[in-house]
TrEMBL record:
This is Thiamine-phosphate synthase. The lineage of its organism: Bacteria, Bacillati, Bacillota, Bacilli, Lactobacillales. Mg(2+) binds at residues 73, 92. It catalyses: 2-[(2R,5Z)-2-carboxy-4-methylthiazol-5(2H)-ylidene]ethyl phosphate + 4-amino-2-methyl-5-(diphosphooxymethyl)pyrimidine + 2 H(+) = thiamine phosphate + CO2 + diphosphate; 2-(2-carboxy-4-methylthiazol-5-yl)ethyl phosphate + 4-amino-2-methyl-5-(diphosphooxymethyl)pyrimidine + 2 H(+) = thiamine phosphate + CO2 + diphosphate; 4-methyl-5-(2-phosphooxyethyl)-thiazole + 4-amino-2-methyl-5-(diphosphooxymethyl)pyrimidine + H(+) = thiamine phosphate + diphosphate. Its EC number is 2.5.1.3. It comes from Carnobacterium inhibens. Pathway: Cofactor biosynthesis; thiamine diphosphate biosynthesis; thiamine phosphate from 4-amino-2-methyl-5-diphosphomethylpyrimidine and 4-methyl-5-(2-phosphoethyl)-thiazole: step 1/1. PANTHER family: THIAMINE-PHOSPHATE PYROPHOSPHORYLASE, THIAMINE-PHOSPHATE SYNTHASE. Keywords: Magnesium, Metal-binding, Thiamine biosynthesis, Transferase. Its cofactor is Mg(2+). Condenses 4-methyl-5-(beta-hydroxyethyl)thiazole monophosphate (THZ-P) and 2-methyl-4-amino-5-hydroxymethyl pyrimidine pyrophosphate (HMP-PP) to form thiamine monophosphate (TMP).
Amino acid sequence: MNCNILNVYFIMGTINCRKDPLETLEEALQAGITCFQLREKGEGSLTGKAYEEFARACQKMCQAYQVPFIVNDDVELAFKLNADGFHIGQEDLALPIFREKAKGKIVGVSVHNSREMEQAILNGADYVGIGPLYKTQSKKDAKPPAGLYFLKAIRKQSANFPIVGIGGITEENANAVRSSGADGVSVISVICHSEDIGQTVKNLLSKKKIN
């Protein structure tokens, strides 16, 4: 997998946004995000037909900007829409079975320890999301922050495997995340709550990974 896809990986659902979600996504796409994950979860999130219609609108927008469209957890919807990829947690689905069904798709897995990292690679993940690196308000069920030390350890363990950092990442600490071994940063609030999405994405993109 091309690690450039992970450069600025935007995750969003309707409940995360302070203004119109599709407007938020389009501004982020215009500014240069490199991947988008639809994560429609939490109290007040869309369901049923409204959820599917919103997902299709997001996908169409991503296609116009040639940015991968990833669906979080909802395997049924992802296959229905023929999404570019899927992101699954440790509790969601047996990865080997899923990998077989999702040939040709991007498959990402959330990882919280070294054992899960080994299993993700062994079972066919294309990339892993490591975190939360910092305290985050975007996920009510988030695990305690893993910190950059864990990210560095995982990078040492898996020298060339695609890794995106997630959880509490801001314009100010994005470079530290890359310097600690991540190929990119995955963000929710920093874009969804930004007063100037174009500038925020530009700042996130401008942080260079230090080898």
